[in-house]
Amino acid sequence: MSTLLGEYLNSLKIVKDKIRELANVKRPRMNDLNNKETAKPTPEEFYKIIYLAIISAGLPDSEFGNAIETIFPTRPKGSLLIDFKHLPKEIQFLKKYTLRQNEVEEKIGMSENKISRLANEKTKDLLAVELICFIEGLGENVLDTFKRIYGPIETVDSSLPSASILNDRTNKVVQYIAAYNDMKVDNMVENLADHVLFENISNNEVTLSIQGKDAFREQAIEALSYFSEREQAIGSITHTYNSTKIVINYKAIAAMDFPNGLKKGDEISLKGKSIFEFSEDGKIVRLTDIS
């Protein structure tokens, strides 16, 4: 029977043994973490395994919070600073760094005097969920804090997948562009993951962000009324380990008046790029349009 951590990794459809190697976790230990409720991950194990899995699945950093919620749904939640909210901000700051040990242990579900034992190196069994609860209790971002403690993880692998995988990706990208040009939404979403993230970036600002295949479909259907004609022409294709970038030449004819001054019948012509990020099972998990 899988643990919640194991079930979460299974849901990402990634190669867990590759993640294990990159996280430098021994195979028996990884098996226990995936299958035995008595095996509790340390903070560093949790950070490396989950973050590498998220990168491998092509998911954004925000997924780290979702992973915590999925794997530790019953963890103690609450602010360690709530009792100080009435105090001046500078006093709140001082209180943040002078919290009483016994109150911290009680509020985050840690055994009595465990912090002292950890500080005296009499035990090294700090659990991921304990540190997570402490970080959350201070109102800090868990992933950012883990990065500060253990260092950033830049990438899973700089090498390219096999030629067959790259060919499959290319075909899916070409199919998506063809469906976009033909205004066939069902074909556009055929290879999208259920949790796909779509973002449109213009002038270095995110102008649209959509999470989920159903929400993407709704927006794509609505966008059909924007233009009487539209065409994306692929100029080049570049592959990385888990993504494919295309440079595009875009042309369209407006079918309505837009708030930015564009009038019905006006022609648009611009260059941009789209980045398709793929999961291990070949689904598009993130699509970013940049102009």
TrEMBL record:
Residues 173-286 form the SnoaL-like domain. InterPro entries: NTF2-like_dom_sf (IPR032710), SnoaL-like (IPR037401). It comes from Sphingobacterium suaedae. Pfam families: SnoaL_2. This is Nuclear transport factor 2 family protein.
